[in-house]
Amino acid sequence: MKILYMIIQSLLMICLFLPGISLADRIKDLASIQGVRSNQLIGYGLVVGLDGSGDMTTQTPFTVQSIISMLGQLGVNLPPGTNLQLRNVAAVMVTATLPAFTKPGQHIDVTVSSMGNAKSLRGGTLLMTPLKGADNQVYAMAQGSVLVGGIGAAAGGSSVQVNHLSAGRISGGGIVEREIPTVVGQGEYINLELNSTDFTTVNRIVDAINSFYPSSAVAVDGRVVQVKAPADTSQRIMFISQIESMDVVPAKATAKVIVNSRTGSIVMNQSVTLETSAIAHGNLSIIINTEPVISQPGPFAQRGETVVTQRSQVEIRTDEGNLMLLPKGADLGEVVKALTAIGATTQDLLSILQALKAAGSLRADLEII
């Protein structure tokens, strides 16, 4: 047992010292079958059974109109001009995603979101709501108890809330009523669509498929691979399953630096390198202190009054600038280590990276979001 433990530990150490080895990914993780896609559904409905946390009907007239219309369909006719003051009902938008190959009668999850001024949907029940697609056709019906992942309480003018209370989810709350036809491939071919455009990865996928099925795969462009597949449906499904399970080493990603100017976060991938460059980092601080000074009349003065004035002191401090030389071809670890060594903060890194990109020293795409 001890020998086995030492062998495993040695293998792990070898893996740590071999960062250049690329692990293969399945084609399933790199690409998808053209035409096999999900569709989004949307609907408008009402949530009832709320404990006084629903819409204020005086401020949300569409909720009242929906209630009157629903009651009319159920055979309840309200006198004209009836002023409804309901606090247990909320108007909501219901959204869902219809996966490919979903058949009528199967269940899907739905998300319920308040569109009025309801304080909480906790404990409510969604009434039957038709879910429509982009073609305005009904593809599913949703109904059920809304599960809200939060809690809130209020009393005596004080309130506390945990998580979000205006949106919830109904697991399996939608029933599919209509199937969306999905065609796998066109004629005798199927198309593999890469998740991101990369000519090298496309070429490697073509080589991997042709190594098992010679002359069956052809690269269409930097994102699509056309594969000749069997005409029989069962054989085509088996063929796609075998292709998806093939391992391919994807191409190294494009060097990119993502900068979030709102949060100050910076993310760089392992492909980021630098040309030979030097960075000087220093800070200029201006400190202004203002103190009150009280002036009183001298002793034995016949006339005078106490006067309060302000005295300001201006001090300028210049921190010692640090000059750091970054060698050519520095990788991500060296870049981070060098920038940290000169005491750069997150905001300083934003300016430094922009300056390096402008100077042509940063071998990466700088994207600011």
UniProtKB/TrEMBL annotation:
<dbReference type="InterPro" id="IPR001782">
    <property type="entry name" value="Flag_FlgI"/>
</dbReference>
<keyword id="KW-0282">Flagellum</keyword>
<dbReference type="GO" id="GO:0030288">
    <property type="term" value="C:outer membrane-bounded periplasmic space"/>
</dbReference>
<keyword id="KW-0732">Signal</keyword>
<dbReference type="Pfam" id="PF02119">
    <property type="entry name" value="FlgI"/>
</dbReference>
<comment type="subunit">
    <text>The basal body constitutes a major portion of the flagellar organelle and consists of four rings (L,P,S, and M) mounted on a central rod.</text>
</comment>
<keyword id="KW-0975">Bacterial flagellum</keyword>
<comment type="function">
    <text>Assembles around the rod to form the L-ring and probably protects the motor/basal body from shearing forces during rotation.</text>
</comment>
<dbReference type="GO" id="GO:0071973">
    <property type="term" value="P:bacterial-type flagellum-dependent cell motility"/>
</dbReference>
<dbReference type="GO" id="GO:0009428">
    <property type="term" value="C:bacterial-type flagellum basal body, distal rod, P ring"/>
</dbReference>
<keyword id="KW-0969">Cilium</keyword>
<comment type="similarity">
    <text>Belongs to the FlgI family.</text>
</comment>
<dbReference type="GO" id="GO:0005198">
    <property type="term" value="F:structural molecule activity"/>
</dbReference>
<keyword id="KW-0966">Cell projection</keyword>
<protein>
    <recommendedName>
        <fullName>Flagellar P-ring protein</fullName>
    </recommendedName>
</protein>
